[in-house]
Amino acid sequence: MANYLYLTLDTTNPSNPTISIDGGATYATNQLVTLSIGTSDADTTGYQMLIWGNVDTAYDTNIQATEGTSQWIAYNNSKQVKLSTGDGAKTIYLKIRDDVHNSSAQVSDSINLDTSIATVTVTNPDVNKISKNAGKNVASFTFSVDKAFTQYQVKVVSATSASQNTGTIIPTTAGSTNTSGTGTFASGTPITVTINGADLETASTGDGQKIVKVFVLDEAGKWSA
Hints:
Immunoglobulin-like; about 40% strand; 4-stranded antiparallel β-sheet; about 220 residues; 1 helix; mainly beta; 5-stranded mixed β-sheet
């Protein structure tokens, strides 16, 4: 029988912990997001992780709003969490510990939750009926949006409830203006659109009442309804 034993001392913390929300996206349009978690340690056997932050505390009892109320769970390089209710900036924090409870430094990542759909407000046009005759061939109106946006389209659609992926953008060949655009537009920015009768006919042939609808794309990548 041997009169000795081997005992390993390990005081080294897990190296280079990382966390990324939805692959480093700037915006989330859903409360459910995926965390990508990592460490440069080659062997993570027996490792655990502690996650906390701006979360829905009812979704996972182990993941809470503070470090002290959260629980250590088995390490995994992917974890789904539910962000707390309410649009705005959300931050998730992470620590990793090894099999003998050496804990890593704290790391975090942030994302902007944006679940709201932009509301477009259109003023009444200066005239309700146009032709292709000079002096009577142009109508204009102004629209504004209740949140920042990056793109807009003015379309002829088949119904007032039509979605952005339907209809035809009014062209500008005959002189219509601001029927589409891209850029950085602040909330409340007024944009004046002019529609020429010839362009309206190109978008929708035949006489009769046309439904002209404005769609905007917000900074989170959602089109207005």
